Amino acid sequence: MIGDKVYLDHYRTTPVHEEVYQRMQPYFKEKFWLPAPFVSTGTEIGEMIEEAKGEILKSFNLKRGEILFTPGGTYANNMVIHGVLRDAEPESTRIITSEVCHISILNTYMYYKKKGIDVVFLKVDNEGYIDIEELKSQLTPHTKLVSITHVNHTIGTIQPVEEIIKTVKEYNENIAILLDSATAINSIPIDLSRLNVDFLTASGHKIYGPKGIGIIVARDTKKLKPIIFGNVDTSPYTPGADNIPGIVGIKEAIKLATVRREEYVKHTSELQKYLAERMEKEIPDIVLNGPPVGERAVDNINYSIRYVEGESVTLFLDFENIVVATGSACASSNLKVNYVLSAIGREHELAHGSLRITLGWDNSKDEIDTFVETLKPIVERLRSQSTLTRTQEV
Amino acid sequence: MAIVKYTEKVIEHFKNPRNVGEIENPDGAATVGSPACGDQVSVFLKVNNDRIEDIKFLSYGCASNIATGSIVTEMAKGKSIEEAKKLTWKQAMEELGGLPPIKFHCSVLAVDGLRAAIKDYEERKLGKKYEESVNEEYILEKLKEIIYPKTGNNIVDAQLIRYMKFEDGKLTIEMSFEETDEFKQNVLEEIKEHISEIKEVKEIDIKVMEY
Known about the structure:
Largest sheet of chain B: 3 strands, antiparallel
Largest interface: A-B, 24 and 36 residues
Number of helices of chain A: 12
Number of domains of chain A: 2
Order of helices and strands of chain A: EHHEHEHEHEHEEEHEEHEEHHEHH
Number of strands of chain A: 13
CATH topology of the largest domain in chain B: Sufe protein. Chain: A
Helix content of chain B: 25-40%
Radius of gyration of chain A: 22 Å
Strand content of chain A: 5-15%
Helix content of chain A: 25-40%
Oligomer: heterodimer
Distance between the termini of chain A: 43 Å
């Protein structure tokens, strides 16, 4: 429980871990300084940032590399894409991503499409996987960047990252690869000494760290151009005052995620299996979105509940202090149905009644029981007043 | 995004919707909306002496859709057919204490459902024939049923339509959107859905200009 809530929306955001929170505290009031040369206040902070970068590199098993701190995961993805494309000639530039990648990648790609750059959105299969053969066929001498979301934020598909990287780098070593690992860090070990990605991005608040901080782990920054300009304290790529408490926070969060990963996988995968078993046995007419349990990310489950609309379900759950997410167009801010579900071929009606349940440290088996027991009568009730179930009977 | 919240009255009607269900052998009934595009509402009427004696509804929709179905049926119950025809979505919304603009389009459906059920009653029981000539004016009225989620008024009043022509079964519409308009796709789909109900329109061509 978090307060009085059964919280099942950890892919949206997570609470800050107590240890992370404690480590951040001194940097708000006592050590509120910014990095600066020579003076003790400034060099203390400077050293702390360098140490944080070293720790983060170590967590990804990278001996040499650069860590850029950004205001979040969306900013990190934007900075990589804009940074790689800043001086690109549209007529000789192709960039590739997939239809199910994170919206911060897709919308940035759409911008470049309008600018005349050749943009490829790879199709995915009905479980959300990229087709390596299709990727191979889309690589051209003009290809500059391939961007992939590691673990799908909606349906938990784990992309075959090793194969993707091998395919791209075998074709041309110079093509930059952006791996968006925001929803992967908690459950998947990432060894950058083996995975030849140029840029990995992550976000603090998805891994029990603070909001407002993200990172770019760059093997080197040669392929990147600055896109933000101002007073350079720590890096020409990220001018302006650094978010010092955030840097401490994300460093601690990554460290903790690495140390606790094995235990996290055990904890969430047990709950995931239990939840899937109960849902599939006790709630009729539901459809699993994404790969089967055992193949998908251990902390994600996504079901479409036929004949009901998702916002209604999430609201009724909210009345009972249970927090989940839905892909329903009614619950989105732009009235569009969830694009990941559309990309895997779910018709509007199925996306409309979809529930995303994402697990975390604070969840227990009892909470899964509470969730299923609460959900059952809500679904029954909404179905009994739905136009669709009646039409089915006729 | 501004904070989007339902009023207590909306929540109350969503939790305890009035008049949910079906009427056997109704005097008028209609289903509007389509699950392929979002919400769907069915309305059933029992009419006695030109008064709506009983009314029931079903909804495949979100909270605002269910709450509007509840309030509209409550408002229509006991009214004469002519009175019920005059019920507007605006009245229903005011009765609910307001809705966020983004939810207007989900709630219009319940009022559309009531009107369609009354029309069905008049055609089936009274033998009335609705023969409207489909011209540009008629199509414009149809387009006025579509709410622009950003502002909450209809797409015609929101001045999204710059030009319209209907000739030989072909409808041409020219629209303009801000480049960053996130509701563009939604509005275009709504237009296609609404126009597809007019069988006289054989072909539709929507040109979109972005500025």
